[in-house]
Amino acid sequence: VSDRLLCGIAAGFVEEVREADPDLAEDLRSAGLLQELHRQSTTKHENKSSKTFEKHGLSCPIQIETVDVGPGQTHPVLKVADLLQALASCNKLCLLWGATSTTTTHQNTEVLPKFWRRWRQHDPQHAVFQHHRDHLAYVLPLQLHADEGQTLKKTGVMVVNWQSPIGFGLSTTDDCPEAMSLNYLGNSYATRFLYTVCHKKCYSKGKSEFFTGIMERLADELLDLFWNGVTLNLRGKKVAFYAALLGLKGDWPIQARIGNLSRHFARKGVFQVSAKSGFCHLCRAGEQGYDANDYGSSASWRATYLKCIPWDSEGPLCRVPQSPAKEFIHKFDLFHTVHKGVFAELAGSALVVITDYSLVGSGDIPQQLDAIYALAVRHCKATNTALHMDGLTRHLLSFSADYDYPVGNWFKGADTSAMCSFLEAFWAEHIAAHANESDEYLRGFLECLRAANIFMRTLYRSGLWLSQERCRTAAEAGAAFLKAYIETSSRAFDQQKTRFKLTPKYHGLIHIVDNLITGYNADRRWTLSPLSESTQMDEDFIGRVSSTTTKVSSRKMHRQTLSRYLTNMWMQVHGR
């Protein structure tokens, strides 16, 4: 709610209690807070409510810092070190290693060394092992995330935050404690920590230096935290903690913006394969002679993996200590690659093929989609699977006519998993009922659906680190999907059908699956789950912060949003 509404509610409550019992109004534990809010409502100084919350211990007690982001330009931020000190001061630093209290046995000296031992198998050349190998129990692993939300008038607002990969797990996990927990459960205000927000008018065309300046200042701080650390109060003792950057999470556009990537999927003017048509920042896939859709072990792009820098000039984060191959810091996001990418393409096409074969009765496409939706709802209720969409339409499938490639454009990425589950059951039943009919096209994408569902179920039931058995299951399912999908896409093309589109995200999935295959073939006891670099919960955080920007003064949006965040975060951290 807005400051004005908040103070108005408090004022109304105070006046009503005073009328009923004047003594009670003075004896309330929150009387001081309510009276100050009442006074601010009366004097029209509602914008001071944030200071009132801080005064009464209801807001995180740190200062909003102003940093230089360019010649004559400044911007407000919440420094990482300040937030770490605030968390430590209230015994909540342990949230960064998946514990609720530093007094429990689940302490940093147990969790962090274990994490770094496993990370060394995943990224052995990271600078942390050269410079901090003797005190890894006091090095916090941090991930960055940035994305554009929406503020007033449907204008963009950039939200930059940081987090730990270690958290409190998933509601669907059945893994052992040794696998450690992903950072998914819990209110995102208590698991992601805001650095700053920035209105699009500040970084739109011709003003990219402003946002670059913000990232430069963040890189400066991460650099200082890596080398010099910060002194924190841990269990009554002054302890020096350090921070090491693991990677940047986010969709491809933000990776390209922050990393100055010259190889990414949105490059303009690339209409044919050439020496300049590469789109992968990790390899030369997409260029002449480097087939991006070749998933085989002898694919030509494999020889170029982490060998060719994907920028003309380094981005700000390249200054932060990391691996020698600095492009490795830009992570493929499973959420956008799969839920909003390849598996959404699969689900969209598999739904439309039902209408191609008229398997839900006659009628036009909208009528058939309604019938399919009813079947999907029934399946989801029977399997206790959440389904958020309220119908299937041509628009939702980006399928205005038969010349379009259908894709699931539903708002919730989780609906991709729900629809893949339904489609596997539907097509398995149909093919079983027509076992005498040989249709490799249908059998091919049923294999895609089966592999996709096994892949996702395995990851969502596992922890931060995959055991050898779970890694093998996920790797085999991922490889099976890659093979079946490209074969199905080829069959659709041969039949001149616009189904099962191949996009650059298919190549991104190849890299994700490759990491699992590499981990299993190397006989690693633990392999990092790709869900650790996915952004489902980050999307929730972006939505919450973006919503806050609509409830503050547009002239002071940046600072007031940070102030609101400090109150919201402090309440969630303390479980209020």
Write the topology of this structure.
Layout: H1 3-20, H2 22-27, H3 31-43, H4 49-55, E1 65-70, E2 73-77, H5 80-89, H6 108-122, H7 128-131, E3 139-150, E4 156-163, E5 192-199, H8 200-203, H9 208-227, E6 230-234, E7 237-249, H10 252-259, H11 334-356, H12 365-382, H13 414-433, H14 440-460, E8 465-467, H15 468-494, H16 504-521, E9 526-528, H17 536-549, H18 557-573
Parallel strand pairs: 3-7
Antiparallel strand pairs: 1-2, 3-4, 4-5, 6-7, 8-9
Helix pairs in contact: 1-3, 11-12, 11-13, 11-14, 11-16, 12-13, 13-14, 14-15, 15-16
Describe what you observe in this structure.
The chain has 576 residues and is of the alpha+beta class. The protein folds into three domains: 3-56, no CATH class; 64-258 and 537-575, no CATH class; 336-531, no CATH class. Helix content is 46%, strand content 11%. The strands form three sheets. The chain has a five-stranded mixed beta sheet with strand order 5-4-3-7-6. A two-stranded antiparallel ribbon has the order 1-2. The longest helix has 27 residues, at 468-494. The radius of gyration is 26 Å and the shape is globular. The model has no long low-confidence stretch (mean pLDDT 92).
